[in-house]
Design goal:
The complex is a heterotrimer of chains A (333), B (94) and C (86).
Chain A lengths: L6 H20 L3 H21 L3 H24 L19 H32 L4 H9 L8 H9 L1 H19 L13 H24 L7 H17 L10 H24 L12 H25 L6 H16 L1
Helix pairs in contact in A: 1-2, 2-3, 3-9, 6-7, 7-10, 7-11, 8-9, 9-11, 10-11
Chain B lengths: L1 H25 L3 H27 L2 H34 L2
Helix pairs in contact in B: 1-2, 2-3
Chain C lengths: L1 H24 L3 H25 L4 H21 L8
Helix pairs in contact in C: 1-2, 2-3
Classes of the chains: A mainly alpha (333), B mainly alpha (94), C mainly alpha (86).
Chain lengths: 333, 94, 86
């Protein structure tokens, strides 16, 4: 399939992406811009698929379109409808309109100059180094990495240290979320149609998460995408008014949150004790170790994303369960 | 022969999809646009998936395509209902 | 056959643009959300076609996940106003 024949398709895709991004930023209505952003995420996932990057397409569809959309919509509920200069803390140009325009033009020129410099530097690098240096190095070492998907090999083996630090960043983020206090109030119980959707959507999402985790070893997938699917399942449960979003309680929750970084560190330190370099898997054990780390990371990522949607520490379910039972009894009579 | 049938199914799918999109654009009301949307989702994608599964002639891919169609079917039907109900609720102010 | 798939992909892209018009125009938030569902389904269809055109079997998985998560986004839109637990 030569690339030239998809040219029209590519151009149209590009136009729609740029158009959606522009429209999403240019509108003052908060909910409108969030919905445009969700559409933007969906089309961007298609674009990643077109660029032959299915792993990124999976992550974009799950996190960029689905979860971010749900998060932003929930936040938009609590915002005033229109982003007027009074509702946001925009700086006022009291009689200094001229200075404002000059400032804006100066910033635009600065950003353009920066982008131009970066583009020139990238073009220079791409033209002087061979194109397949990195892919060649990866495919040469793929057999010893324990998996056959090059993306997973890079993430979990060749650059495992980077992924460890990424998971640590996620852990820091969720600690910040915990510092916000109690989670936002829940949603009303769902009607029968939404309930029907939840009944099949949540199990399918959980199954897909397990499938993506397993298939990540030899096809696009992996811990991040699987974690996002699990978080989406929890978000759907939350939206349907269920108080039990699948998150564990108290101490177990904290274990799950730290599991990604923890298991990663334990594996690395154990390998150190055995005399190998930090996170230097022995080729025979690499596949199993990667699966172990990915499972822990999936649970951690799912908990982090779900807590981000909840917006704080989840309430203990003891009180909630009693309230739910009471509400059910009332609704049944 | 299989190729011809597959081609017909795929073209029919795209036709229904375009018909739904035009309906989404030209119909006057949110609730009538719902009808257009569900035609595009159910028929359009279903025929497209059927044509592609005929083309691939691989059982696993056929099952996956069927799963995609069923997911879109159930999800879009429910979403259409939920969106309409939300709009109705905002209209009547309840 | 390849030309047919290409043509179908362009047809779906045209439908996506029509949905885009509705997203940008649509007087109410519900219209915009409906059009987003249409865009999502167009994306699923395009991924199914790209799966054959570019010979990437993983795009089937991406199509499935796109379909499921468009449903999650629609569910988020309609989640009723948050309420205090009493």
């Amino acid at each position: 399939m030569n690339p030239a024949s998809l040219l029209v398709f590519d151009v149209l895709l590009l136009l729609s992406i740029v158009g959606l991004a522009w429209a999403s930023l240019a509108t003052t209505d908060v909910r409108r811009s969030v919905i445009l952003f969700i559409a933007f995420g969906l089309v961007l996932a298609v674009a990643w698929g077109r660029l032959l990057a299915p792993d990124v397409a999976l992550a974009e569809a799950a996190i960029g379109a689905g979860l971010s959309g749900a998060l932003l919509l929930a936040a938009a509920h609590r915002q005033p409808r229109l982003l007027t200069p009074e509702s946001t803390n925009a700086p006022r140009n009291h009689g200094a309109a001229g200075a404002g325009v000059v400032l804006r033009w100066a910033v635009t020129l600065l950003c353009t100059a920066l982008a131009g410099t970066l583009a020139w530097a990238l073009l220079h690098v791409f033209s002087s180094t061979p194109h397949d240096m990195l892919p060649g190095a990866i495919s040469a070492n793929l057999a010893a990495s324990g998996v056959s998907n090059p993306v997973t090999a890079v993430l979990l083996n060749f650059r495992a240290y980077d992924t460890l630090l990424e998971l640590a960043v996620l852990l820091t983020a969720v600690l910040g979320i915990f510092a916000l206090g109690q989670a936002t109030p829940g949603y009303q119980p769902a009607g029968p149609v939404f309930d029907g959707l939840v009944r099949w959507l949540v199990p399918v999402l959980i199954l897909t998460a397990g499938y993506l985790l397993w298939v990540g070893a030899h096809a696009p997938g992996g811990a991040f995408q699987a974690g996002a699917m699990l978080a989406a399942a929890g978000v759907v449960l939350r939206l349907a008014g269920r108080t039990d979003t699948g998150l564990p309680e108290g101490f177990v929750l904290r274990i799950v949150m730290a599991a990604g970084v923890g298991v990663f560190l334990l594996v690395g330190l154990a390998l150190l004790l055995l005399g190998r370099p930090f996170l230097g898997y022995p080729p025979a054990w690499a596949g199993a170790l990667i699966l172990l780390i990915e499972t822990a990371a999936m649970l951690s990522i799912a908990a982090t994303l779900l807590l981000a949607f909840l917006g704080g520490q989840p309430e203990s379910t003891g009180v909630k369960a009693a309230a739910d039972r009471q509400r059910e009894e009332i609704s049944q009579c | 022969m299989i190729n011809i049938m597959s081609a017909i199914l795929i073209l029919a799918g795209v036709f229904f999809y375009l018909a739904g999109s035009i309906g989404l654009l030209r119909l006057p009301d949110l609730y009538s646009r719902l009808h257009a949307l569900t035609k595009a989702d159910n028929l359009g994608l279903g025929l497209l998936a059927a044509g592609l599964s005929l083309h691939s002639q691989d059982l696993f891919i056929m099952l996956k395509l069927l799963l995609v169609w069923l997911a879109v079917l159930a999800a879009s039907a429910t979403s259409a209902h939920l969106i309409a109900r939300q709009a109705r609720r905002q209209e009547t102010g309840s | 056959m390849t030309e047919l798939f290409l043509l179908s992909a362009l047809g779906l892209m045209l439908g996506l643009f029509l949905g885009l018009l509705r997203v940008l125009l649509g007087p109410g938030v519900g219209d915009r959300m409906l059009a987003t569902q249409l865009i999502g389904t167009a994306g699923v269809g395009m991924l199914l076609l790209l799966n054959v055109l570019l010979d990437q079997p993983a795009l089937l998985d991406v199509a499935l996940i796109l379909a499921l998560l468009a449903a999650v986004a629609a569910a988020a839109f309609t989640g009723q106003q948050q309420t205090q637990h009493d």
